[in-house]
Amino acid sequence: MPWKPEVRVDGEWHRNALVFATRDEAFENAADLFARWTSCAGYRAAEVPDARVTHSYTGRELRPIDDTTAAPSPAADQSGDSKTDLTGDKQP
Fold it and tell me: How far apart are CA 82 and CA 27, in angstroms?
């Protein structure tokens, strides 16, 4: 299942256009964004079932994925969590 990074600003969760194959990639990218923005109160990874993977994120390196080769994410990340925030709390 694809995942998106989210950050909490002014009491609301916000996303960008990036979509990753794994929860870990999205969570690490959200953590990086959280570290650079001064107004964030939290970060998490959110599962997005109908999205197409657009990027990879490994070793703090963001890489676009060519649309012609992008495929649905692998089933390797089957944690069952739809969202996990920076404290590890599950979100509805």
Answer: 12
What distance in Å separates the CA atoms of residue 66 and residue 90, rounded to the nearest whole number? 32
- Residue-number span of the structural domain to which 17 is assigned: 3-66
Examine the pLDDT at 85 and tell me if it is beyond 90. Answer: no
More confident residue, 22 or 73: 22
Number of domains the chain is built from? 1
Task: Compute the average pLDDT of residues 60-84.
Answer: 61
What's the predicted TM-score (pTM) here? Answer: 0.72
Question: Minimal CA–CA distance to 71: which of 52, 56, 89?
Answer: 52
92 within domain boundaries: no
Question: Is residue 11, in this structure, part of any structural domain at all?
Answer: yes
Q: Which helix (H) or strand (E) holds 50?
A: none
- Evaluate whether residue 76 is within a structural domain: no
